[in-house]
Amino acid sequence: MPVFDVLSSGQLLFAALVTGSLYALVALGLNLVYGTMRMLNVAHGDLVMLGAYAGYWAFSIAGISPLVAAPAVAGLGALLGYALYKGLFRRLLAVAPADAGRMEGNSLLLFFGLSIILQNAAAMLFTPNNRAYQYLDEVWRVGNVAMTGNRIAALVVAGATCIGVALFLGRSMAGLAMRSVIERREAAYIVGVDVDRVQWSSFALGFASAALAGVLMSMLEQFSPFSGFPFTIAGFIVIILGGLGNVMAGLVAALLLGVIETYGVALTSANLRSVLLYGCFVGALLLFPNGLLARRSTRK
Amino acid sequence: MSALLSVRGLGKRFGGLTALHDVSFAVGAGEIVGVMGANGAGKTTLFSLIAGNSRPSAGTIEFDGAPVVGLRPDQICRRGVARTFQIVKPFPSLTVLENLRTGAMFGHAQLRRRADADAASLQVLEEVGLASFAERLASSLTLSGQKRLEIARCVATGARLLLLDEVMAGLTPTEVGQMLTTLRHLQASRGLTLLVIEHVMRALMELCGRIVVLHHGELIAEGTPAQIGDNEKVLSVYFGAHA
Amino acid sequence: MNNLWGDRAWLAAVTIGVIAMSALPFVANDYLVGTGLTLLMWLALTQSWCVLSKMTGYVSLGHVVFYGLGAYLMVVTWQQLPFVVVILAAGVLAALFAALVGLPVLRVRGPYFVILTFGLAELVKFSIMAAESASGTASRILFGTPDLVVVYFSMFALALLATGLLTWVSRSRFGHGLRSLRENEEAAETLGVPVVRFKLIAFVLSAAIPGMVGAVMALRSTYFVVGGVFDPMISITVIAMAILGGGDNAKGPVLGVVFLFLIQELLWANAPLLYMIILGAILITFVLLLPNGLVGLAGARTRRREARAVEARP
Description:
By secondary structure, chain A is an all-alpha fold.
């Protein structure tokens, strides 16, 4: 396929936007959770996977449209985040700063262990087979771009949610409090922010957006208990490139990643999807060796 | 007497912030020179530049007659310079002795065999009063102990010039007195040269033969403790224009 | 911290182990020999991993990349060179790869290093898969692989080599430098430790043996699929074994390998998903509650006894 045709294809652009919007939603959640905990939650993508299963079950068993189930699933996700925070993470986060460095390094293995448990428990309970269902897959045509209804819906919901949360973080007092805790927790304490409340609400919001992304994803692709991980990777790419706490930059980075992936695959082959994803991942980390810390200080 | 350490026109900028500007002074072998100044005056930056932890934006640094700008910290240490950190950086899960062993093995002394390194380290521990803690984990020491450990590690490297960054901070008056005794003893018995950042006035006045004063990154005064105490610029900076 | 056994007890245990493992192929059936081979493989992989990750604190989640490169080399050069040559070449290849990516990769710290190594291994995996796919190769079959006994003793040699390497590093000046930079990299450098060079050397050293292990294991299973030899679960299992064992010398991994290997053998055939869940649980438990592993547990009891003895003195 000649390169120019590929680049000017509205079809691909649409696909890139859809993928990018899902990545943005996942990264948003990761931003909030990681920003609060400072621990690399590599199990984040598994929340997406759980959300996907919830959407699947809602549709296949109860006949509920995923778009209708989405808020409920997101709510369940929020509840889970709240419960985990109160039950587990609040204690982990109270670790003294001297030990925090060690904690951060080891915490990754902790979440990896959690991820392994989640994925395999899901495989045990739900079987490891791929799941998929048909919903809203009538095709709409605008010019020579063919879009399925479910993709349009996913784009709209994901996009609206991201913009909504971005506005919330940027314009509201509660959002400002959240951003301040992400930026520098100790300072937030001093200026009177109710850090505990901000932290559990960040968790709840973060888990909810991951679950929502999962429901949307379940409409579009087939998935298995092991489908969550690429979303974790994508989420990390986005927040490393966009900077921690910087939701707007994250949106841009997510769309960029969607573009690279979609156009890259179209220009080369489907086999390269993972190569591109991990290539971006490795590249992002090598470019920013201090992960997110360097970004924060240069923004001042 | 040629200077052991010579700093000329030294400057350091971080983006828009100028931490140091056109700082020049020299330290002769065997001297104890104090570095004084308010927080943010650039004192720790000065140490970082000398020890190689960061690179100057301008100026030269010569140690023992040879330029050291651009060398890595481990290279500078092997030449004979060792520094402590304002916030102590012990090796927490290693023992006190093992902490010093690192300095003895890899520093200027280059005592590559463990037996030699440990023997030298024990000697240093005796001199700083930590010998009975040799097998204890570094993380189990009190702050005062960890400050001594920090200094002991530097001495164990066999360095000729020690950069001591606020080693008195957080110590009780008794501990300050003990530390002063220890430092004087170390300097005398090993012929060390000390460059000392301090806020504790007593330390500066009693220990140092000479003091340089930094303010907003610039060197505003240099002289003996008595001279500094009378210096108008210094007084106006510390006490206001009408002291 | 590492006084689980005195050196004499450790030496005795090692000697017994060496004798037992040498005798195995002559007294046991093929299945047991294969099991012993797998145990030795994990030992070699875990000990070599510790040379980097336990000593420097740079936890690598991508150890499998060296294994995979070695296996791939063996497979693509099959029957073109004597396999001993290929095994050695695999070690060199892995070491070269480490030398090539080491400098930029080791600049990344803490948890970012962990996920970077993971991502790097996956990148190599998917790149090779894409290349194979593009050339139309889905899988490869090896004919005429050497006898099980030959493969067994090759792995035996590698396990000994790995244990020896870790023991030597752990006791050397180089090892002390590594430990120092693990504890506080900035302070270590300021005390004269050439941290960049040492990290890179540790990285390269840790890469050679898994490369050779991969090449040997390719001889074992005649049917080869890229995804299998770059399986991230290999990296994760190595970490679990090392964390389980604890410590930063050669003693801990032996404990961890044997322990987890037993669990693996019990569960893998009948309940692989359950095994994975247990693996995850082990990671969580030991990271959270027992960061010094089994070695640390025993050591803690010794330390408490010593501490009480010290306090008892006037």
